[in-house]
């Protein structure tokens, strides 16, 4: 990814050979759900949904669901970068240790 720009509710970045993509938060429920929508090449809509739940060991379980409307050629070109993006996202989530949902902010 290149040319990363972000605000509280959206971001944009460039993926080599695919162009610029914009992603925005469309729905959120603290600690349990975030939905993103976006576009690639300014015409292909996609969504990423993140479901977060607590398991019996009191650990977070995260399920990522990505959907996209892509023509067959673009699907072949995009599958590698999408897999890399999801793997990076999962890796970063697994490394993050600063969660504290019981914090009162003081």
Structural class: alpha+beta
Per CATH, the class reads: Alpha Beta
Q: What's the overall average pLDDT, rounded?
A: 83
What would the principal axes of the Cα set say about the shape? Answer: globular
* Total beta strands: 6
The side-by-side strand order for the widest beta sheet comes to: 1-2-3-4-5-6
User: Would you tell me which CATH topology applies?
Assistant: Alpha-D-Glucose-1,6-Bisphosphate, Chain A, domain 4
Helix content: 10-25%
Order of helices and strands: EEEEEEH
- Describe the sheet with the most strands: 6 strands, antiparallel
CATH superfamily: START domain
Helix count, DSSP H or I runs of 4 or more residues: 1
Detail the poorly predicted runs.
none
Work out the count of structural domains: 1
Going by CATH, the architecture would be 2-Layer Sandwich
Q: What attributes does this structure have?
A:
single chain, 106 residues, alpha+beta, Alpha-D-Glucose-1,6-Bisphosphate, Chain A, domain 4, six-stranded antiparallel sheet, 6 strands
Task: Give a brief rundown of this model.
23% of the residues lie in helices and 47% in strands. With 106 residues, it is α+β, with helices and mostly antiparallel strands. The chain has one domain (2-95): START domain (Alpha-D-Glucose-1,6-Bisphosphate, Chain A, domain 4), CATH 3.30.530.
